[in-house]
Amino acid sequence: xxxxxxxxxxxxxxxxxxxxxxxxxxxxxxxxxxxxxxxxxxxxxxxxxxxxxxxxxxxxxxxxxxxxxxxxxxxxxxxxxxxxxxxxxxxxxxxxxxxxxxxxxxxxxxxxxxxxxxxxxxxxxxxxxxxxxxxxxxxxxxxxxxxxxxxxxxxxxxxxxxxxxxxxxxxxxxxxxxxxxxxxxxxxxxxxxxxxxxxxxxxxxxxxxxxxxxxxxxxxxxxxxxxxxxxxxxxxxxxxxxxxxxxxxxxxxxxxxxxxxxxxxxxxxxxxxxxxxxxxxxxxxxxxxxxxxxxxxxxxxxxxxxxxxxxxxxxxxxxxxxxxxxxxxxxxxxxxxxxxxxxxxxxxxxxxxxxxxxxxxxxxxx
Length: 366
Ligand SMILES: C[S@@+](CC[C@H](N)C(=O)[O-])C[C@H]1O[C@@H](n2cnc3c(N)ncnc32)[C@H](O)[C@@H]1O
Description:
Elements: H1 7-17, E1 20-21, H2 22-31, H3 54-57, H4 59-74, E2 81-86, H5 92-98, E3 107-110, E4 123-126, E5 137-143, E6 152-157, E7 160-169, E8 172-179, H6 182-190, E9 200-203, H7 206-217, E10 221-230, H8 232-235, E11 247-250, E12 253-255, E13 266-268, E14 271-272, H9 273-281, E15 286-292, H10 293-299, H11 319-336, H12 341-344, E16 345-352
Parallel strand pairs: 2-3, 2-5, 3-4, 5-10, 10-14
Antiparallel strand pairs: 1-7, 6-7, 6-9, 7-8, 10-16, 11-12, 11-13, 15-16
This protein binds S-adenosylmethionine.
Residues 38, 45, 53, 55-56, 86-89, 110-113, 143-145, 148-149, 210 line the site of S-adenosylmethionine.
């Protein structure tokens, strides 16, 4: 038998016997332990890499969350608290948050693949929530975790819901359509969603499964979820989203060509935030905040960061330093402007057992 030497070998072997549901294709190309996109040692996140996330874009993101951490700790009393970043990637955010306190053994980074996690004395990295020691109260953070979960691609054809699968023809990957798995029919029926004829939709059953697991893990605490996503009334609106939201990212470019360069490009779809909200509320979590990232960071004092110092008060020693500072200030602004990453990413905060006092992030801005 020939050894598999690339993601294409893995796919060809898998497609020899039958087509693959697109969901299973995504699982393979993102998370195959050897050739998957997220198995690579090099981080896909960064200005010189495939795409930028908020913690990498500007330190203002971790600064604002640091303010939330302090508020959270002040409400924990004598309880043993932990801060956990799920889907932590290289650990940039959890390392920055751990740097705001001197407490050890309280900060955890969780990721399916820890090859990219950068060691830090105050951060413990694990691959599953089950490996984290018990605690009384937890602050759980995730940034772009749920939009990285494998998803299915559905399309309405007349009265029938079809599911997209991947096939191989003439040596190239191509689409095929099958009657959708009954779970997806149920997904739309239970939520009262009807798709227009010809409308595509991208859905992951893992959204609720993983969020449910996080809720069970957080007996008392806050769950703060940053992600590309929408409430379901907007996510599945035919006029706006006729072609769904699935996209591929490589080298800072977005494309709709989901089958090319398997394992070399990220595949992602917007999440249904109502799935997360309802799952939490079903486990007695109160929904405390749901809005765009820009507003959330502003309420947490983002503009108190030194990158927002008035330009006239700044002293720079060289032209290069000045240029770097201008770029850094620009990146910081991108986080809090109501467009791009500031508006496309939404934040859901749910809490259980943390008392009735309002949080700083609930301050009305205007
Ligand atoms: C888009 S990256 C975001 C990385 C980081 N949070 C950031 O903002 O730069 C998604 C990360 O989630 C991880 N991931 C995906 N599914 C996961 C799961 N079920 N549990 C833990 N991590 C997961 C991936 O390995 C990847 O590192």
